[in-house]
From TrEMBL:
The keyword Transit peptide does not apply. This is SAM-dependent MTase RsmB/NOP-type domain-containing protein. Keywords: Coiled coil, Methyltransferase, Nucleus, Ribosome biogenesis, RNA-binding, S-adenosyl-L-methionine, Transferase. The active site is at residue 518. GO terms for biological process: maturation of LSU-rRNA; rRNA base methylation. Residues 50-72, 112-122, 610-621 have a biased composition (Basic and acidic residues). Belongs to the class I-like SAM-binding methyltransferase superfamily. RsmB/NOP family. Residues 1-188, 591-621 are annotated as: Disordered. One of its GO terms (cellular component) is nucleolus. It is found in: Nucleus, Nucleolus. The keyword Repressor does not apply.
Length: 621
């Protein structure tokens, strides 16, 4: 069975295999107990070493600077005590005590300086600088230079270890922190140098520009010769032509001092007209007319005609408000703004993510696409509720629907147009916009007084040459000539006289006629109004538009009625609107000047108008 174990004796067992390999357990230490010691990488250690060396060098430089200041102070004090510089100082017994007290006063911190003074006292005939001064006369190295050298060394050392430390986020943070510290604290001189270099560069450029300007002003522009003109007509170089246009405009602005000797102003104007026709593709007649209208801003006008006018819409106040409409369109991705302070219903559209002419709001009649300049005649007409109003040339219906909205669907509005096909567009817009007080007719405007008269207000947006909307129809540049302008002028005179005859001078609230065209030609605007003032009992009144240029009273050889300054002109390059003309007439009598007992017919009016027009045409030629 075996022997029994004696429990009283305990045999001490030796360490086992596990006990030999395992270390005694150690408790986990937090950061405070470890003393916040963070293991640094090799690169960080080198960088730390460089920073310590820099700090030590800066501290030594500061210490030397302080010692130099103390030396200066001690030297000044010694100068006060010594009667003569350069002679050996011999102090009497009475002054020995003062010297000892002065040395005790400076203290042990100035030991070196006091030794220097004692040595200076013992030496004879000391003047100027000696080798004893080299310790504090040696120029100290600037901190920025020391920093640059240290940074260059550290950069060379670190370049070899980029691959090892590329993925370390802690190192990248340390790098950024070091760069910020260097830029903020250690590079003030370099910052100032950079600012100085930038300032010098700007001044140099300004000086070059000023020199070029002075050279350009001092040089005299010479007109091209006949061979050069022929060469330009065969193979025109637009860049050369554009530069020549600028130079000619510069000369004409001060012709007396800048003009070429032996050349007249007419030669410059002739060359400018040819260059403008070539560069902007206008015919010669139209360019001459425009140069007469805009002698100083012809280039701005022509450039404005090359750019499309912004898209504008008018809110239909019968169905919505402008604020609500704008919010809805913005939600649909339309970028828009109010057209200006002068209109409460207009919106200008910059861009749209949806077709602006096919939105549910457009189909529901909440707004209509209408040019900003088309608002102006209706605003000048100022229709009132329960009135009888005629729109003689109404197609496609933008102005008609605006008048109906201002009348709030009250009264009676007659929309007439001579073109039957275009009159269909009036009907479509009236139905879509919810207009119920309008009658659409298809009569010749010149014969409309035979159909109906007695209107409170009449609006006539007469057909014209379209010289104010060249951006919409570029063909006007080459298609319109003198005959077209005079033909339009003759038609406009007949329509304006018919519109005046349709208006009732005895109307209590009205008796107003508004004449407008989308042309900038004087023959279609001031000339027509001046003719109506002589042929009918009407007078010009303010349009109520607080912007726009005044109409011409004197133009070239023409002299118009002084009241034509009440008319308004609008240009694309000044108002960012289509070229437009607006005039407001007030009829004060239904009698026709020079009329006999037998009332003349419309045919007689037309023949009389033709006779006057022929005389004007001869005068114009």
């Amino acid at each position: 069975m075996g022997r029994k174990r004696e429990t009283g004796e305990k045999v001490q067992s030796g360490p086992g295999r596990k006990a030999k390999k395992q270390k005694p357990p150690s408790r986990f230490l937090n950061e405070e107990e470890r003393g916040n010691k963070k293991q640094l990488s090799r690169r960080q250690k080198k960088r730390l070493k460089n920073r310590l060396e820099k700090a030590t060098a800066i501290a030594e430089a500061k210490k030397k600077a302080n010692e130099r200041d103390l030396c200066k102070k001690l030297k000044n004090h010694a100068t006060e005590l010594v009667p003569k510089v350069g002679s050996k100082r011999k102090l009497p017994d009475s002054e020995d005590s003062a010297e000892e007290s002065s040395e005790e006063e400076f203290g042990s911190a100035l030991g070196k300086e006091s030794d220097y003074n004692e040595k200076k006292d013992d030496d004879a005939d000391v003047s100027g600088y000696t080798d004893d001064n080299k310790g504090w006369l040696k120029p100290k190295r600037r901190a920025s230079q020391m920093e640059e050298e240290a940074s260059d060394e550290s950069a060379d050392e670190d370049s070899d270890e980029v691959a090892d430390e590329f993925g370390s986020s802690d190192d990248s943070g340390e790098d950024k922190k070091d760069e910020d510290d260097i830029e903020d604290d250690l590079l003030p001189v370099e910052k100032a140098a950079k600012k100085l270099r930038k300032k010098e560069e700007v001044n140099r450029k300004l000086a070059e520009d000023e020199l070029k300007t002075n050279i350009a002003e001092s040089e005299t522009f010479i007109l091209p010769s006949g061979q050069e003109i022929e060469k330009d007509t065969q193979t025109p170089d637009l860049a050369i032509i554009q530069q020549r246009i600028k130079e000619i405009m510069f000369v004409l602005s001060d012709f007396k001092s800048r003009g070429e000797q032996g050349r007249g102003r007419k030669e410059y104007l002739s060359q400018l007209c040819k260059d403008l026709c070539t560069y902007y593709s206008y015919n010669e007649y139209l360019m001459e007319c425009l140069m007469q209208l805009f002698p100083l801003e012809i280039v701005e006008f022509l450039e404005a005609n090359e750019v499309q006018r912004p898209v504008t819409i008018r809110a239909n106040t019968l169905k919505t408000r402008r604020r609500d409409l704008a919010q809805v369109l913005i939600n649909r991705g339309v970028n828009l703004d109010p057209i200006g302070k002068w209109s409460k219903v207009g919106l200008i559209v910059y861009d749209s993510q949806v077709p602006i002419g096919a939105t549910p709001e457009y189909l529901a009649g909440h707004y209509i696409l209408q040019g900003g300049a088309s608002f102006l005649p209706v605003m000048a007409l100022a229709p009132q509720e329960n009135e009888r109003i005629l729109d003689m040339c109404a197609a496609p219906g933008g102005k008609t629907t605006y008048i109906a909205a201002l009348m709030r669907n009250t009264g009676m509005l007659f929309a007439n147009d001579a073109n039957k096909e275009r009159a269909k567009a009036i009907v479509g817009n009236l139905h879509r916009m919810g207009i119920t007080n309008t009658v659409v007719s298809n009569y010749d405007g010149k014969q409309f007084p035979k159909v109906m008269t007695g209107f409170n207000r009449v609006l006539i947006d007469a057909p014209c040459s379209g010289t104010g909307v060249i951006s919409k129809d570029p063909e006007v540049k080459v298609n319109k000539d003198e005959k077209d302008i005079l033909r339009c002028s003759h038609l406009q005179k007949e329509l304006l006289l018919a519109a005046i005859d349709c208006c009732d001078a005895k109307s209590k609230s009205g008796g107003y006629i508004v004449y407008s065209t989308c042309s900038v030609m004087v023959e279609e605007n001031e000339w027509v109004i001046d003719y109506a003032l002589r042929k009918r009992n009407v007078k010009l009144v303010p349009t109520g538009l607080d912007f726009g240029r005044e109409g011409f009273v004197n133009f070239e050889k023409y002299r118009f009625h002084p009241s034509l300054k009440l008319t308004r002109r609008f240009y694309p390059h000044t108002h960012n609107l289509d070229g437009f003309f607006v005039a407001k007439l007030k009829k004060f009598s239904n009698k026709i000047p020079g009329q006999t007992k037998d009332k003349p017919t419309a045919d007689n009016e037309g023949s009389g108008d033709t006779e006057v027009h022929t005389g004007r045409e001869a005068e114009h030629k």
